[in-house]
Design goal:
The complex is a heterodimer. Chain A has one domain: Alpha-Beta Plaits. Chain A is of the alpha+beta class. Chain A is globular. In chain B, helix 9 crosses helix 12 and helix 10 packs across helix 12. By secondary structure, chain B is an alpha/beta fold. In chain B, helix 6 links the parallel strand 3 and strand 4. Chain B has a 7-stranded mixed β-sheet, sandwiched between helices. The chains are: A alpha+beta, B alpha/beta. At the A-B interface, helix 1 and strand 2 of A face helix 4 of B.
């Protein structure tokens, strides 16, 4: 039996930054998914990056200095 | 199928014979990849990029991002989001010039500029901008050292074309970039004629702002272009247009980050799909291979006409100092007369006149009559150039009777 997955989302200012992050993660082989920003987080119509909580540190490091992340939030 | 409309107005036969030497206005034909990408976007994506969270919108966003990414690779830009998309180089130059310069500032430019640089500068001059136009030589060359004496306390920027659209002369962008950086000036380059034709590296050339168009040597469709803005400069450049960006929708103020600050309204996604494919085609061929091929065509043309009595050539005789743009005149014939004869009798598409650059024509002594311009592209052949040389030869020998008959 697997543990229920814990997810985080990374929020960005714009879709361009989401897509740049997506490309960086893709190239690094880090699993992730683009999802619409959950309603309880923001009323904006954008998308964000979702990933499992164990990848948080790795993703923070790889995006540092390349893309500005507004915040990472637990879902 | 793609050429269906063209074939309705131009017969197959005429299309086959067409020699297109107007690539400096718009490149044609495009690589097949450009058309395929536009078709693919149109048929299977179609949505608005960055506006909604659904998968087609995200896919449209990816198409736009991949185009940014390819351009960043081509120009040595580390962060693709430093590139703002516009409808052409003119819009990009308007953002750079009008967004940056204020009354009381001083700007420096060259006498070889296109009106896409001159007119925004002249408009600002009416509002109190000080402007110095550095004279270039009769071949269109700029001596970088001529800039230094013009630098004043209030000098803000140097705006320079990378290569003349009239003579093809390549200007010393890297040297001017060094001078600008040493004096703390913002350096803006008009790469309308060079992006995709000769190597550009924004870091090596110390370029702060790079304006380019998509529909010339980058092999995209018309209605695409962009502006590279060096990190931090977005803080001092006001957008020309404001509006919806799909970001920060809760605020009624324009976002202050790249590229949204300058990208209001839905982008030309289908056009950018084509532009991305065009740029990837360039990356796959290698810009050096493209440059070498265009240099061969230019050399063949210059060699073929330089000793022809009755032909007046402008710009450098050495193709390595110019892009694949050549200007010439035929003695006792007006440029429009020559262009019409080339089109009607020889199926050669060229451009006569002033090429939107009156100052450049004054510099090389062809104002107001202008010149005939051939601009070669990657898809032209040496055979086509030889046909054009023969056509010019025939025009010179038989020009009297031609003029009488028309």
């Amino acid at each position: 039996m697997t543990e229920p997955e814990e997810y985080y989302v990374a929020l960005f200012e714009s879709i361009s930054q989401v897509l740049r992050s997506e490309k960086i993660l893709k190239n690094a082989g880090i699993p992730h998914k683009l999802i619409p920003v959950p309603r309880h987080i923001s009323s904006d119509c954008g998308v964000c990056l979702r990933f499992t909580s164990n990848l948080k540190k790795q993703i923070e490091d790889i995006l540092a200095g390349k893309v500005d992340v507004i915040e990472m939030r637990q879902l | 199928m793609i050429y269906e409309t063209a074939q309705k107005t131009i017969s197959d036969d005429a299309l086959m014979k067409t020699i297109y030497f107007d690539n400096a206005a718009t490149s044609w034909p495009k690589p097949e990849d450009t058309l395929v990408a536009m078709n693919l976007y149109s048929q299977s994506i179609g949505a608005s990029p960055g506006r909604s969270g659904h998968r087609l919108s995200i896919e449209a966003g990816r198409v736009v991002f991949e185009t940014r990414d390819a351009l960043a690779q081509l120009f040595g830009i580390h962060d693709p989001l430093r590139i703002v998309f516009t409808k052409n180089a003119t819009e990009a130059l308007n953002i750079a010039i009008s967004g940056l310069l204020k009354p009381g500032d001083h700007a420096i430019t060259s006498s070889m500029e296109h009106n896409s640089v001159m007119r925004p500068l002249r408009s600002l001059e009416d509002k109190g901008l000080e402007l110095s136009i550095i004279p270039c030589s009769g071949q269109g060359d700029l001596n970088p050292d001529d800039i230094v004496p013009h630098i004043q306390k209030n000098t803000r920027a140097v705006i320079l074309t990378h290569a003349s659209n009239v003579t093809g002369t390549i200007l010393p962008v890297a040297d001017v970039g060094k001078i600008a950086r040493e004096h703390g000036l913002i350096f803006c380059v008009d790469a309308a004629q060079t992006a995709g034709a000769i190597p550009i590296d924004v870091d090596e050339m110390l370029i702060d702002l790079l304006a380019f168009t998509g529909h010339k040597s980058l092999f995209g469709p018309q209605g695409t272009g962009g502006l590279y803005i060096r990190n931090g400069l977005e803080k001092v450049i006001a957008p020309v247009m404001t509006g919806g960006t799909g970001s920060k929708s809760e605020f009624e103020e324009q976002p202050d980050f790249m590229p949204d600050k300058y990208e209001s309204g839905t982008l030309n996604t289908i056009g950018l799909a084509g532009l991305g494919a065009g740029v990837r085609y360039i990356l796959s061929q290698g810009i050096d291979a493209i440059r070498a091929s265009e240099e061969v065509l230019t050399t063949a043309f210059l060699r073929g006409v330089q000793s022809m009595d009755g032909v007046i050539l402008y710009g450098h005789r050495n193709a390595s100092r110019r892009i694949a743009v050549v200007s010439f005149n035929i003695r006792d014939m007006s440029p429009s007369e020559v262009a019409l004869a080339l089109d009607e009798r020889y199926h050669i598409m060229s451009r006569p006149g002033l090429h939107c650059a009156p100052s450049a024509h004054k510099t090389i002594g062809t104002f107001p009559a202008g010149t005939n311009r051939f601009s070669f592209g990657y898809f032209n052949t040496v055979d086509q150039v030889q046909s054009a040389i023969e056509a010019i030869h025939q025009l010179i020998s038989g020009k009297g009777s031609y003029a009488r008959n028309h």
